[in-house]
């Protein structure tokens, strides 16, 4: 069962001008449990070279590396899995390409989508955006801030791990976890922090407390 602890989604444009590699190293030192290579706006070539560097780092720290959207890129950098959205490859197709041991995540914001993703083999669900967020530019405006009640409803409906995402901070994490999320994923709460290592540690402490 996928149980990563604090999950970082990378994005250089939300990293206060710092290289993604440097932010990831600091976060890993702070107890990060998983990394997703996102990097919207960068070319496939740039993401490939960054992904190879992140693969070496995550291997060193023994944490999983996933790729946002791109199954081909996940294969090219030997990632542990992929995180898919509604417009990406269907889960069964991704499983066929990546194999039985790959970690497959799926973004959902409704109970119906959660049930469908679980039935089609998702290893975990990225549920959100829980709170309004500026870190994702592809969230339906009507779904900005689905709230913890929706997290609870999705938790009641499925038996796969829930990774809550969207506007989550160390202060908000306990509320989200109490609603039924198994852990949290963040972008700017770590990438934009003055001290990413300390920010990660605070989030990890919040998750572990629950």
TrEMBL record:
4-amino-2-methyl-5-(diphosphooxymethyl)pyrimidine binds at residues 36-40, 68, 107, 136. It catalyses: 4-methyl-5-(2-phosphooxyethyl)-thiazole + 4-amino-2-methyl-5-(diphosphooxymethyl)pyrimidine + H(+) = thiamine phosphate + diphosphate; 2-(2-carboxy-4-methylthiazol-5-yl)ethyl phosphate + 4-amino-2-methyl-5-(diphosphooxymethyl)pyrimidine + 2 H(+) = thiamine phosphate + CO2 + diphosphate; 2-[(2R,5Z)-2-carboxy-4-methylthiazol-5(2H)-ylidene]ethyl phosphate + 4-amino-2-methyl-5-(diphosphooxymethyl)pyrimidine + 2 H(+) = thiamine phosphate + CO2 + diphosphate. The keyword Metal-binding applies. Pathway: Cofactor biosynthesis; thiamine diphosphate biosynthesis; thiamine phosphate from 4-amino-2-methyl-5-diphosphomethylpyrimidine and 4-methyl-5-(2-phosphoethyl)-thiazole: step 1/1. InterPro entries: Aldolase_TIM (IPR013785), ThiamineP_synth_sf (IPR036206), ThiamineP_synth_TenI (IPR022998), TMP_synthase (IPR034291). Its cofactor is Mg(2+). Keywords: Magnesium, Metal-binding, Thiamine biosynthesis, Transferase. Binds 1 Mg(2+) ion per subunit. GO terms for cellular component: cytoplasm. 2-[(2R,5Z)-2-carboxy-4-methylthiazol-5(2H)-ylidene]ethyl phosphate binds at residues 133-135, 167, 187-188. It holds the Pfam family TMP-TENI. Its EC number is 2.5.1.3. Condenses 4-methyl-5-(beta-hydroxyethyl)thiazole monophosphate (THZ-P) and 2-methyl-4-amino-5-hydroxymethyl pyrimidine pyrophosphate (HMP-PP) to form thiamine monophosphate (TMP). This is Thiamine-phosphate synthase. It comes from Halococcoides cellulosivorans.
């Amino acid at each position: 069962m996928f149980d990563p602890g604090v999950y970082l989604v990378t994005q250089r444009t939300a990293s206060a001008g710092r290289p993604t590699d440097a932010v990831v190293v600091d976060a890993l030192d702070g107890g990060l449990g998983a990394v997703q290579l996102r990097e919207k706006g960068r070319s496939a070539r740039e993401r490939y070279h960054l992904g190879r560097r992140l693969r070496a780092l995550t291997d060193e720290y023994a944490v999983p590396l996933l790729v946002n959207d791109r199954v081909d890129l996940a294969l090219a950098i030997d990632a542990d899995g992929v995180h898919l959205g509604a417009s990406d490859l269907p889960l069964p197709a991704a499983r066929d390409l990546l194999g039985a041991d790959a970690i497959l995540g799926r973004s959902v914001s409704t109970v119906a989508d959660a049930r469908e993703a679980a039935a089609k083999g998702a290893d975990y669900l990225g549920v959100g955006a829980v709170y309004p967020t500026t870190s994702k530019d592809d969230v339906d405006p009507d779904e900005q801030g689905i709230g913890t009640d929706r997290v609870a409803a999705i938790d009641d409906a499925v038996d796969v791990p829930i990774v809550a995402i969207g506007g989550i901070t160390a202060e908000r994490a306990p509320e989200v976890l109490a609603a039924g999320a198994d852990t949290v994923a963040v972008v700017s709460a770590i990438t934009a922090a003055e001290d990413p290592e300390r920010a990660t540690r605070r989030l990890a402490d919040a998750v572990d407390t629950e």
